[in-house]
Amino acid sequence: MAVQIKLSVFQGKTIAIDGPAGSGKSTTAKLLANRLGFTYLDTGAMYRAVALFALRNNVSLEDGNALAQIAKTIKIEFQNDSDNGQLVFLNGEDVTEAIRTPEATYGASAVAVFSEVRSELVNQQQEMGAKGNMVVEGRDTTSVVFPRADLKIYLDADIRIRAERRFLDAIHQGEESSIDTQVELLKARDKNDSERKASPLMKVNDAVVVDTTSLSIEGQIETIIKIAKKRFTVV
Ligand code: DC
């Protein structure tokens, strides 16, 4: 007798989340993946890991070839963790916190301008995501990494709100900061990320924009799940 298995409408799907710094991508993607039982792929962590390795080994952040070589040879791995959501390993070392320092953050933005670095990391990301059941988050995930993702979300928020979120993160990490400083840092990063030649930050035509300015994290997740259910349910 044939057993009918009712597959979830989410089964095998890939959801890509893009948007500027501080729009809530990471937290939303992590929790959404958790809710759906999907793998969470944090592509920004991979650029951060390349930058961290370069900084530690005195490799110039302007040497695209050397940085691409690093991207090719280092081993970046992710591991789920009940406390932190996800741990990031660089050649076997837990660098979850080390890749979040201001130096690694701005280093990541610098290494991400090189197309030779990007193509190496994009290949690795596409391999990781080949089987679907994944929420992938990052600057070019809707345009370059998974242009055929089942659902593309572009998260956005008012710069002041984004700066407030970054300020709270900074305070949490014991850094001194102010909201105005964060506004300036975000402006610089937005400019860097939007104006670079290789895979600039952009909203692709088929992305659904979710403005998170006045949404809680839970509200963001509920909104995306609602959009996804509608998209994946064939009527
Ligand atoms: O999302 P994040 O802050 O962890 O990203 C760190 C830097 O890496 C950011 O300046 C943009 C860059 N990045 C990218 O160019 N492409 C991605 N897919 C992810 C991040």
What is the strand and helix layout of this fold?
Blueprint: E1 14-18, H1 25-36, E2 39-42, H2 43-56, H3 64-73, E3 76-81, E4 85-90, E5 93-94, H4 102-111, H5 115-128, E6 134-137, H6 141-145, E7 151-156, H7 159-172, H8 179-195, E8 208-211, H9 217-232
Parallel strand pairs: 1-6, 1-7, 2-6, 7-8
Antiparallel strand pairs: 3-4, 4-5
Helix pairs in contact: 1-9, 2-4, 3-5, 7-8
What do these coordinates show?
The chain is an alpha/beta fold and 235 residues long. Helices cover 48% and strands 16% of the residues. The chain has a single domain, classed as Rossmann fold, CATH 3.40.50.300. It has helices at residues 25-36, 43-56, 64-73, 102-111, 115-128, 141-145, 159-172, 179-195, 217-232; strands at residues 14-18, 39-42, 76-81, 85-90, 93-94, 134-137, 151-156, 208-211. It has a five-stranded parallel beta sheet. A three-stranded antiparallel beta sheet has the order 3-4-5. Helix 1 packs across helix 9 and helix 2 (43-56) packs across helix 4 (102-111). The protein is globular. The chain binds 2'-deoxycytidine-5'-monophosphate.
